Design the sequence.
C-alpha cells in the first residue's frame, strides 16, 4: 500500500525537466542512424516504416488542429490554457510534416501498387477511382492538403499570438470564422490524406468510413498526448496559475469518448463489410485475420478499446496522474499497433513484421525528435497560454457561473465531482 | 370431517418500526432460521437487524448472461459454419466479431431472465396461497402494524420459549397462525 501511495505522490511532484533536454537530439541521432540503415537494407520496407511513423505524427498534428478548431467552434472556455500548445503542434503540419512527407513522395511509385498498373482502364477498381488515383492526382491532392493545413494552422496561431499583444476581441471572432470554414476543410483534407496515403495501399478496397476511422484514432492519441503535456506543464509550474482541475477531467472525458467512438467506427466498418458479402471489400479484413495479424486485431480490440474503456470509467481516476500517465503512453503504443495493422499487411501478409519493428521505431524517433525540437522552440518563444483570451478567467474558474438557457449551469457542477479531491479556493 | 389444522408459525404484532427492529435483532441473535418480518414500508436497517446477506439473485443473472452469450455464439457458428455453411463474399465461414451483437443481446436477455426467474425461484413464487393471508389482522401489515413471524418448523422453535422471547421483545399480541 505504501509503495502505491509513493507512486501516487511521485506522479504529483513538481518536475525538473533539465535532465530531459538532450532527449530530442538523442532521438534524432539514433533515429537517423536507424532510418539510414533501413534505407540501405531495404528501400521499400523503409518506405512503409516511414509511412507508419509519418501517419502517427500526422495523427498528432491533425488531432491538435482539430482541438483548436472545436475550441473556437464551441466557443469553449475550459480549453483556453491548453490551446496554445495545441496551436504550436498543429503548426508543425507545415513545413515540418510536409518535409517528412518527402521520402513517401519520392518512394510512392514503389510503395503504392496502383502506380505500377500499366493500363488503369483495364483494372476496374482503379478505373473507378480516376482521376484521384493517378500520379498527378496523388501529388496535387498532397500539395493541396499541406497547403490547406498550412493556411489553417498558421492563421489560427497567428491570430492567437496577435491577441496576446493587443487583447482585442476581434481576433476571437476572426478565429471563429476561420474555424467555421476550417472544420469542413479539415474533414475533407484528412479524409483525402487517409485515403490516398494509407487506404490506397490496397487500392482495390474501399470503405466510406476510412477517413472517420483515421480521424477517431488520431484525436484519441492526441488527447492522450495533450493530457500528458498539460500534466507536465502543470507540474513544472508553467500552466499551474491558469489550470483548474476540470481541464484534466474534461480531457480525460474526451479521451474516454474517443475510446468508444473509435471502437464504434472500427466495429461498424468491419460489420458492414462482413454483412455486405462483397469479395472486393472483405479481402482487406481476410488478410488481417491470417497469421499473427489475427492477434494484432485482438490487441486492438482489447488494448485499444476494452482496457482504456474500463480504465477511464471512474471520475477520480481521470484526475489521478499516477493512473493516467501509463494510460496516455499506452495510447501511443495502441495507435502505432492500429497504424501497423493498416499499413504493414500489404507487404507482410503472413503476419506482423517483427524483424522490421526497429525500423518503425527508428523512423518514429527521427520524425518525433525533429517535431519535439521544433515544438519546444515554438513553445519557448511565445507565452505558454493565450494571455489575453476573453475566456481565460472562465478557464481558471474565477467566474460566477449561473444557469442560463444555454449553459444550464453545468460548468458550475465540476467542482462537485463526487470522488474528486478537494480544491482549495477552486471553482467559484 | 376436517382434519385438525396444522400450526404454521407464531405471529407477533408490533406497533412501531423500532420495536419490530429490536425484536428482529433478538430473533436473529437467538439463531432462528425460518422467520420473517413484514412492514408497511421499507424500514432502513432491517436487513442488517435480520442478518440478511446480499441476495444470490445476481448469480442467476450472471449465469443467464454467460448462457446467453455462449448460446448466441454457438447458434450462429452452428448455423453458418457447420449445419448449413454459406461460403459467400470470400469470407471465412464464421466471425466472432460479426456474431458479437446478437450474442451480446442474448447476454442481456438471458441475464434479465436469470434475474427475474432466479428471484421467483428464490422467493418460491408463484404460489396460490400463503397461511398468513388467512389471518385477519395480518392485512394490517400493509397499513400501520409491524409483524414478525417464526415458523413452527424452525429447528429452534419451542412453543413456550419462543412465545416468551417475542413477549419480552415487546409484542403485546402474539397468535398462532394455522396452515
Sequence:
Amino acid at each position: 500500500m505504501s509503495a502505491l501511495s509513493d507512486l501516487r505522490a511521485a506522479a504529483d511532484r513538481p518536475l525538473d525537466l533539465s535532465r530531459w533536454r538532450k532527449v530530442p537530439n538523442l532521438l534524432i541521432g539514433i533515429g537517423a542512424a536507424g532510418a539510414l540503415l533501413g534505407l540501405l537494407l531495404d528501400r521499400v520496407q523503409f518506405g512503409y516504416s516511414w509511412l507508419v511513423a509519418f501517419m502517427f505524427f500526422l495523427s498528432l498534428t491533425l488531432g491538435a488542429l482539430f482541438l483548436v478548431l472545436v475550441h473556437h467552434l464551441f466557443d469553449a472556455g475550459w480549453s483556453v490554457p491548453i490551446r496554445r500548445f495545441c496551436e504550436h503542434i498543429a503548426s508543425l503540419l507545415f513545413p515540418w510534416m510536409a518535409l517528412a512527407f518527402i521520402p513517401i513522395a519520392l518512394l510512392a511509385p514503389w510503395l503504392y501498387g496502383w502506380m505500377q498498373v500499366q493500363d488503369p482502364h483495364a483494372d476496374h477498381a482503379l478505373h473507378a477511382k480516376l482521376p484521384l488515383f493517378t500520379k498527378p492526382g496523388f501529388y496535387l491532392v498532397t500539395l493541396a492538403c499541406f497547403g490547406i493545413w498550412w493556411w489553417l494552422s498558421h492563421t489560427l496561431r497567428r491570430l492567437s499570438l496577435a491577441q496576446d499583444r493587443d487583447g482585442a476581441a476581434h481576433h476571437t471572432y476572426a478565429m471563429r470564422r476561420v474555424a467555421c470554414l476550417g472544420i469542413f476543410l479539415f474533414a475533407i483534407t484528412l479524409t483525402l490524406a487517409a485515403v490516398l496515403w494509407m487506404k490506397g495501399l490496397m487500392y482495390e478496397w474501399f470503405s466510406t468510413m476510412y477517413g472517420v476511422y483515421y480521424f477517431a484514432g488520431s484525436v484519441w492519441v492526441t488527447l492522450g498526448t495533450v493530457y500528458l503535456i498539460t500534466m507536465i506543464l502543470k507540474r513544472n509550474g508553467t500552466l499551474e496559475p491558469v489550470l483548474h482541475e476540470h481541464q484534466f477531467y474534461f480531457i480525460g472525458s474526451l479521451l474516454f469518448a474517443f475510446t468508444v467512438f473509435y471502437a464504434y467506427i472500427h466495429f461498424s466498418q468491419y460489420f458492414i463489410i462482413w454483412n455486405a458479402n462483397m469479395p472486393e471489400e472483405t479481402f482487406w479484413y481476410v488478410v488481417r485475420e491470417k497469421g499473427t495479424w489475427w492477434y494484432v486485431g485482438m490487441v486492438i480490440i482489447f488494448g485499444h478499446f476494452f482496457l482504456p474503456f474500463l480504465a477511464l470509467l471512474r471520475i477520480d481516476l481521470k484526475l489521478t496522474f499516477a493512473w493516467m500517465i501509463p494510460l496516455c503512453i499506452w495510447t501511443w503504443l495502441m495507435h502505432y499497433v492500429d497504424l501497423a495493422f493498416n499499413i504493414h499487411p500489404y507487404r507482410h501478409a503472413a503476419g506482423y513484421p517483427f524483424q522490421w519493428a526497429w525500423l518503425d521505431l527508428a523512423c518514429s524517433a527521427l520524425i518525433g525528435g525533429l517535431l519535439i525540437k521544433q515544438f519546444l522552440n515554438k513553445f519557448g518563444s511565445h507565452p505558454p497560454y493565450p494571455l489575453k483570451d476573453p475566456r481565460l478567467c472562465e478557464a481558471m474558474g474565477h467566474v460566477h457561473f449561473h444557469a442560463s438557457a444555454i449553459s444550464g449551469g453545468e460548468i458550475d457542477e465540476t467542482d462537485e465531482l463526487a470522488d474528486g479531491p478537494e480544491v482549495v479556493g477552486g471553482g467559484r | 370431517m376436517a382434519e385438525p389444522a396444522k400450526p404454521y408459525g407464531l405471529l407477533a404484532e408490533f406497533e412501531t418500526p423500532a420495536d419490530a427492529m429490536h425484536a428482529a435483532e433478538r430473533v436473529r441473535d437467538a439463531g432462528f432460521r425460518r422467520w420473517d418480518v413484514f412492514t408497511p414500508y421499507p424500514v432502513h436497517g432491517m436487513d442488517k437487524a435480520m442478518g440478511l446477506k446480499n441476495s444470490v439473485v445476481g448469480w442467476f443473472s450472471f449465469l443467464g448472461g454467460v448462457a446467453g452469450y455462449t448460446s448466441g455464439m454457438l447458434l450462429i457458428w452452428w448455423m453458418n459454419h457447420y449445419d448449413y455453411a454459406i461460403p459467400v463474399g470470400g469470407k471465412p465461414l464464421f466471425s466472432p466479431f460479426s456474431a458479437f451483437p446478437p450474442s451480446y443481446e442474448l447476454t442481456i436477455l438471458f441475464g434479465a431472465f436469470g434475474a427475474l426467474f432466479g428471484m421467483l425461484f428464490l422467493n418460491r413464487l408463484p404460489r396460490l396461497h400463503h397461511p398468513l393471508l388467512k389471518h385477519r389482522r395480518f392485512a394490517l401489515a400493509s397499513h400501520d402494524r409491524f409483524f414478525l413471524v417464526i415458523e413452527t418448523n424452525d429447528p429452534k422453535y419451542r412453543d413456550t420459549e419462543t412465545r416468551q422471547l417475542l413477549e419480552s421483545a415487546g409484542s403485546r399480541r402474539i397468535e398462532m397462525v394455522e396452515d
Summary: The two ends of chain B are 17 Å apart (CA to CA).
